[in-house]
Structure formats: structure tokens, C-alpha cells
Here is the input.
Amino acid sequence: PSALGRGFLCSCGTLEGHIEPVASGTGLKDLYNRRCEEAGDEDLPAADGAEVAARAAAGEELARRTLTDSARALGECVGGMGNLIDPDVIVVSGSVVKAGPIWWDALRAGFADSALALVKPTPLVEGELGGAAPLIGAAAAVHRRIGAPGDAR
Here is the structure.
């Protein structure tokens, strides 16, 4: 679990500190807006993660800190997973990969902090399938499981 995610409702229904509710595009917005509320500055909440990234790129300190904290926490989680499976490459996808260099630098720093020495050189790359990646992966899994229409099994 991620201490950063504790108290944010995960899609699995818990508040236990999963990374998804603070590292996805929606989660980034939620983290930023909560921090704005805590700072007493809730006049202009962000509509989505892209807006948080734009505010960070424009130099807003709270947005920069939120983007960095979110990406670093995700990188630490990815580093831990890399330690378990020792991949040749790690493909990162989702809307947050478009958040810019602040996000990528923090992601890579978090990864480097938690990856073992043999895993640290593993490249972190942006996925090429964009938002369609989960659907393409699901279709490929179904195809492997039941085959294409007309296949004899």
C-alpha cells in the first residue's frame, strides 16, 4: 500500500492506501483538490489530472508538488513490482503519461529509489496503444482463451 493513497477510495472499494486512487488521472485531480481544501484554497478546483499537470507546468507549487508526489509513489510501486518479476522493459500507460517531464522525472526517481540494483536500469517507456490498451489486452486475452470465431477447438 501507498501512504499517499490512504484515505482515498479505491475502485476496489477500500481506503487502504492503494496507488490507483492517487496516481490515475482522476486520482491526481482528487489528491490535488484535497490538498487545496486542506490549504484553505478551494476556490479553483482542478477538473481533471490534465489540469493539474498544466498548472504544474505553469509553475504552481501545489500542483508541482502533487504531481511529483503522485508520480514518485507510483514509481516506487512499479519498482517493487519490477523487483518481483525482473522485466526487460516496463510499459506505462494511461492518461497520466501525458503529464509531462515533471511527472516522468518523479516516476523514474521513485522507481530508482525502490528498484534493486539489477532492476534499476530497466527502461520505463510510454505505451503506444493509448487509452485503448486495456480493451486491446482484454480482446487478446479472450482470443487466446476461446479463439477466433470459426476456430475449431
The chain is about 50% helix and 5% strand.
